[in-house]
Specification:
Strand order of the largest sheet: 5-9-3-16-13-14-15-24
Low-confidence stretches: 1-9
Number of strands: 30
Structural class: alpha+beta
Largest sheet: 8 strands, mixed
Shape: globular
Mean pLDDT: 96
Radius of gyration: 27 Å
Strand content: 15-25%
Length: about 775
Amino acid sequence: QHYTETGHKIIMDPAGQAITGPFDVEGGVGKAVKHLAGDLHVTGEAVYLDDMPNPPGGLYGGLVLSQKSRAKILSVDPAPALALAGVHGYFDHKDVEGNNNFGAVIWDEEVFATKEVFTTGQVIGIVVAESAILARQAASMVKVEYEVLDAILSIEEAVAAESYIGDEGKIESGNVDEAMAKAEKQISGEVRIGGQEHFYLETQASMVVPGENNEFIVHTSSQNPTKTSNYVAHVLGIPKAKVVCKVKRMGGGFGGKETRNVFISMACAVAAKKLNRSVRIMLDRDQDMCISGQRHPFLSKYKVGFSKDGTITAVDVKLYSNGGMSLDLSRPVLERAMFHIENSYGIPNVRVTGRVCRTNLPSNTAFRGFGGPQGMMACEAYMEHVARELGMHADDVRAKNLYPARGGVTPYRQELVDCHLREMWSELQASCDYTRRRAEVEEFNRNNKWKKRGISMMPVKFGMSFTAKFMNQASALVHVYTDGTVLVSHGGTEMGQGLHTKMCQIAASELGVALDKVFVTETATDKCANTHPTAASVGADLNGFAVQDACKQIAARLERFRHAKPGATLAEIAMAAWLDRVDLSAHGFYKTPDIGYNFQTGEGRAFHYFAYGVACSEVEVDVLTGDFSTLRADILHDVGDSLNPAVDVGQVEGAFVQGLGLFTLEELVWMNNGQLFTRGPSTYKIPSANDIPIDLRVKLFENCPNRRTIYSSKGVGEPPLNLAISVLNAIREAVGAARRDAGKEGHFRMDTPASCERIRLAMGDFILNKYAPTDVLAKGSW
């Protein structure tokens, strides 16, 4: 018996060849191979839902949507729509044979509104026609009469009206009141974090195909096939086993396709059952943005106690999120924000409370980071405030308060093991030449009045697991064929992040076959049932272990055949096993051990492990316009022993740039009637070529295996997004330099996104002093 560096046992035959995995194979685990569907993506050959041909007689749906933020429905008249040639019907709550109520956690929404609408964009009915254009035109002709009611649109309005969903959440450690009273200095303040549109390239899409005997196949662009199939069965009133959901791939998801696409599949299903013909919908971009929800806006109110040397001793934070008209995933999003309120800093006394505000906006939902960015943004705001109160550089305050390598304990009482923050901080400081560059930035600012630069470092500690214990499980189905090829099915979905690629690499390594012999066709609920969404950055962790489990079962059955034919190919071994009537298929399963936090008692392990990262960003800001450029960004990120370094570096780059959009560029603007104004790329700006750091350097932290996960790796999807706060912090440093020139010292508030408008209004120069003697904040939309 022999063991790999990561502790995996390998059994060798007498000739010294491995007969049990993991095998060192071409394209296997740890190899930097490109996304297996990458060539298909860039050539346009990859099949997305809208590329799939219509079944014979297939129809298209158009949604009839509420135009009011809150109103009673007095009447609905579909006659003008039904009069159009090619329109096959109008369907609403009266046509639901199952249950019209649904929801991600609790059933607080309706598939089709019955008596009242609670937001613009709420579905009232569906018109079915022979083309997508005709269906949309007909849907717009359905006449709805309303009695308008008072609506709540903002967090402030909700707080004033005590309009909340659920109870207050709370995490507390130490004695906050006593520590605050004893602190040498105290500050208090607040900061707002704006929402963000997912802007996946492929909008929400679904096609429901009826079969015989009340059987249905749902093709959808969803991170959550099981929820889709379950809810289609729910609205149709049929057994779950009669609905199969299939996901080939998504053109992006980012959390926006975890729950907020199921109502589209449900609406299509009602029409498909009534007409016994397939019905499909792919939303236009403007409609998608208006109805499917975004990242939660947050308001954070903080109070901090600290010493004169910058040591934080106590933090008390109140968080408020804009949940929209229903709960959806707002509570777990809020809880994750609370879990990350101290980011990477060892603060002995912490209290954080949180409320989800019910408003009459479309229900906000999951988005990459899932509350983590909002919690960390609040933390970095009070760290900046402390630094300016003391006249210190904020990076020095950050470094002083970092968690130690061992012995650190979070506010939710989880001990940190193998915390790499201080080591990574020092390594990045050296590799990016931070000390020299910081001095050069200070020199530049002394010599330039209308251009200012800022440089900032930023640590991240991100908890890895679903915070709901039952969701930390996965299954897989693996088939070995007699030609030595392997077909893998698992519960995860592919949205461009390379999950299928990593699963194929695991199977290749476990079974001892080259990567080009391993395939994943699609995710389907008749292959792997009762799955959970691909989310929380643990898709590879959970499904990887399930794939490994299935492969090990098959490998164990093949072991005697490898003994008998040393050096034989998998094809030869599989054929010999098949002739001997050995099963070449296996179902694998995995559940995360030692997990589960109880908010009521404050006990339990919230996360399986933590991913760490450090970034350093340098910006240049135009004082007169507020425009800025990110001159350079250096990122050092911890992915354990990477399953695929090429894919992981791409994930780090993409997450960072998406975070840059969240914190500096992307602004949702809502009109006073509750309608979204920024409903397309003409008014809503995601990062483009000019916004990416001019010099972007990404390195994966080395020699840090994570023994708790598949092949000692770590998830990578969400944590690096938070590192983009370093760009915002660098902008703060640049603005601070401009304010010093204008004679304004000390703390100033900057909400996000830090748009050109907000940056310009924060400058405090003589032009602003003439028209706005005191600091002015852009109104924004929260």
